Amino acid sequence: MVRSEAETVDGYLAEVPEERRHALTRLRKLCREELQGFDEVMAYGMPAYERDGAAEIAFASQKQYVSFYLMRSDVRQAFEQRLAGPDMGKGCLRFRRPENIDFVLLRELLKATAARPGQDLLIPAGRLCRPAPGRAREQAETRRHGLVGPTVTRRRRARFRWGAARRGIPRRPVHPSRRPSTAGSPSHRRGGRQHLVGGTCPRKAVDRRETVVLRIRPLEGIRTMATEGMAYEYLAEPFDITRAAVVGIDAHGLIERWSKGAQALLGYRAREVLGRSAASLLTGGADLASAVSEPCRAGNGWEGLVAARHRAGHRVELALRTCPLQDGGGRRSWLAVVTEVSSLRRWELGQAVLRGLLDQSPIGIAVVDTELRYQLVNRALERMDGVPLELRVGRRVGQAVPGEAESTLEWQARQALDSGQTLLTFQHAVPEPDEPLRGDRERVRLCASFRLQDRTSRVLGVCHTAVDVTDQGRARRRLALVNEASSRIGTTLDLDRTVRELAEIVVPQVADFVAVDLLETVLAARELAPVAVDGATVLRRAAHLSIQEDQPEVVVTAGDPTRYPPTSPQSRCLATGRSIRDPVIDESTSWLAQDPLRTAKLRVLGVHSHLVVPLQARGKTMGVATLLRWKSPEPFDDDDQLLVEELAARAAVCIENARRFTREHNTALALQHSLLPHGLPEQSAVEAAYRYLPADTEAGVGGDWFDVIPLSGARVALVVGDVVGHGIHAAATMGRLRTAVQTLADLDLPPDELLARLDDLVIRLADEADAADDARVIGGTCVYAVYDPISRKLTVARAGHPSPAIAHLREPVEFPDIPAGPPLGLGGLPFECAEIDIEEGSVIAFYTDGLIEASDRDVDVGFERLCFALAHPDRPLEEICNTMVRMLLPEHPRDDVAFLVARPRTLSADDVASWDVPAVPSAVHTIRQMANRQLSAWNLDDAAFTTELIVSELVTNAIRHASQPISLRLIRERTLICEVSDSSNASPRLRRPVSTDEGGRGLFLVAQVAQRWGTRYTPQGKTIWAELPLPSEQAHPSPNRTQIGNTGPT
Fold this sequence. Notes:
- The chain is an alpha+beta fold and about 1050 residues long.
- The chain folds into six domains: about 5-220, no CATH class; about 235-345, Beta-Lactamase (2-Layer Sandwich); about 360-470, Beta-Lactamase, CATH 3.30.450.20; about 510-665, Beta-Lactamase, CATH 3.30.450.40; about 675-905, Phosphatase 2c, domain 1 (4-Layer Sandwich); about 910-1040, Histidine kinase-like ATPase, C-terminal domain (Heat Shock Protein 90, 2-Layer Sandwich), CATH 3.30.565.10.
- It is about 35% helix and about 25% strand.
- It is built from 27 helices and 36 strands.
- Strand 23 and strand 24 form a beta hairpin.
- The relative contact order is 0.04.
- Mean pLDDT is about 75; it is low at about 1-5, about 45-50, about 85-90, about 120-125, about 135-205, about 430-440 and about 1035-1050.
- InterPro entries: Bact_Sigma-Reg, GAF, GAF-like_dom_sf, HATPase_C_sf, HATPase_dom, PAS, PAS-like_dom_sf, PAS_4.
């Protein structure tokens, strides 16, 4: 559990003596309340300060570090001298009690020091002390007149000195006779109150009361100082007489010398211990005293741990070292050096760290002097280079081991000496010239060189460290390869390309050769079948790749089937779904004897390492990948196997996705082909040709369609449409719309009305998809045109579809202005028709947007190319279609393309005969005679009886149930068409009469003798038509060829 900072400080306070703990708690509470923007932190030097009799509470902001030291007054001076040392900086303030601090002025001081860090700051006497209760008015009067001190009569003045323009606390006048110095000034007393002058504490009489010392430092400085202080504490010699306690003992064991360090360590003043027995300070009894004194009497030194009694009465654990001395008269004495056991333990830990770095650390370390001669080399560097220590120590860097690495090290050491900066470089150990250069064979080291200095900044030399990061480098390269594979494998949904991408990733980064074999069902995009355990499963080579262009490892060419023996690694890998690795292939490898052809290849090439990994996705094995190494001397290891398994797993998912997509694409393509017309129907109104080009495999099957629908009256409907989206759903929607158009076309609806009803159907389909929570978008575009070869008029309506193009013989290609209705599925807006007169020899092109639109060109360029392709419409239509494909479509279109090219024909006037019929019953006989004469002129006497029957029934119904004008028209085309037109909108109704009915049999008879019949509506009324087969085609109509039209009155 991670402890908070406050809990850490609380734990520290719990160890402080009780009388000091209360003062620290009060100080801590005041600082928390008054110092805004400062957070309480653990003091860096707490153990050291506790040794000196001080306790610290520290607060830090983003820029400053404020320390409050609580200590007894009798140790304050020694403590302040330590703080004022060269390594600790300046600027301490002292207060009698925490309650004496004026935090308002302290905050101003913090702002001023933060604005000008590093300036020489003088603090006026009493400036940060709150006035005593009885002297508030006197202190206020003093400050108002710019005076400092207990009374106005003394007129003691002070100032701030900034060295430049100052901010924060205002300047005060300086009396010319009194200028305080930065070293401090005498203290002045009245009523037991202490006033401070300058940046250091004034001298005072020694007492034992608690006092507070304040120190302000930059945060970066305290961090640097803490780091340096920690290193000094762990590396400094604990028995250094300049820091440790030193005691002089005479020949009788009496203390004759006592240092200040000894006083700080045990609390005794010199006059209290001089002349006393040194053994009296020990608490171990007579045995310990005897153990220490015996070697001393023998004239030898002694070293060990002892326990001493502090002046305050508590026990102190010490480390003692004695050294015998002798003066000129032969008198013996001893010098005892004493230090805390904690200092000794820290020093011993530091020494253990140094020994570990030299003997056990995996980091190579070398120390060179200023002349670049090796002074120290550890075992790790010796193991890295293979150079014995004796060949380096004492020699220059360039002379020890000549070579590129040593010259680089010499340059790096020289740069570190001159600049003082830490230099980081990578060293690559290049393999021998006859070895292949592979990235994973290099030994890579991270080298650092930094200058060594003592505490006085004197340059001693350079330390060079080297860490072998080869494994980390290999791991990074493997990770980079995996990342590269994630972006390179599966870029398309093409199965063959995905397999090739896997092979290109593996070779040459991992292997010298790779072969990928897949199951037949995977390549055929079928459901996966179980794998035979006996090795009978047939695989097919999907791809292979070698580091050599001639690919000498290949036994089976790409696309051919292959079988592996049951005991081969490939068969075992397929059966178990686990990787099979042969780090070393030799004569003892069992499966080699069962596959002599591959074995011969392996022996000729010298293949020494073999790895087979399964290609698995969603729990199904789809094939295996076989990797060989023969040019690289390193065998496959565990890391290589894990890497290849990761690459194979990623590739297997992409292969499975490609298989599923291919299967869906094939299904959609088959569905689309079944729904599209397989040929054009027989009709004489137009000569037509078409092209349908599906999109590439990645884009998926689209919903483009076309149709040519024969209509009544020798007319023909030309349709081209496009459904939104791709895939099997788009193909199914296309089929539904095409069927709907054919059904509506059979009703002989005008183009605008047909598109309106088709729009209603699309809206209904979209509503059904919404109700089923289907996210598919249902919509599309369509153009519907009806051409009449008798009037040579083209009636067109379009729903968001491109306008057709009309190529004239002697004029440029025209894109007629046809009102563009909304796309199918939007609803709300009507569709409009446009009538166009078609000239003889013209060609009309209907197309989807995929023909003219492309990502690499503007749509205007597509229209220009279309015009060029349609030029010279007198060419064969197949040639025109080929030109359009060649000029407008890429090799792999991103969208489906469908277009229909039609050359309209004109029906001769000799093949059409029409008569106006008077609305009298006697006109029926006259019309029958005229029809018979026309049939005789057309040599259709065999159809006279049937035609006479149909004409009689239709004309009679028109005279009885319709209104004038009434007309009869006969058309000789592939069939004989009989049409009766009137001005009524009432639709005839076919019914089956019973034996008792006296009428209502007219339409029934027409339906029985005609090949087709129906009704179409025109702006002037309606037309009832019937088609009769010509005698050369069919003598009698079949019942299933009869189509019943709209019902109505008979």
